Amino acid sequence: MRVAMISMHTSPLEQPGAGDAGGMNVYVLNVAKELARRGVEVDVFTRASRPSQGEVVQVAPGFRVVNIVAGPYEGLSKEELPTQLAAFAGGIVQFTRAHGVRYDLVHSHYWLSGQVGWLLADLARVPLVHTGHTWAAVKNAAQAGSYEGEARRICEQQLVDNADALVVNTGNESAELAAHYDVDPAVITVVTPGADTALFTPGTNRNTEVARRHLGIPLHAKVIAFVGRLQEFKGPQVLIRAVGELARREPLRDVRLLLCGGASGSEASVEAYRSLAVEEGLGARVRFLGPRPPEELVSVYQAADIVAVPSYNESFGLVAVEAQATGTPVVAARVGGLPLAVADGETGLLVDSHDPAEWAGVLGQLLVDDSRRIAMGRAAVAHAAGFSWAAAAENLEAVYRRTLDAFEPGTHERDPFGG
Question: Do 273 and 290 form a contact (C-beta atoms < 8 A)?
Answer without folding.
Answer: no
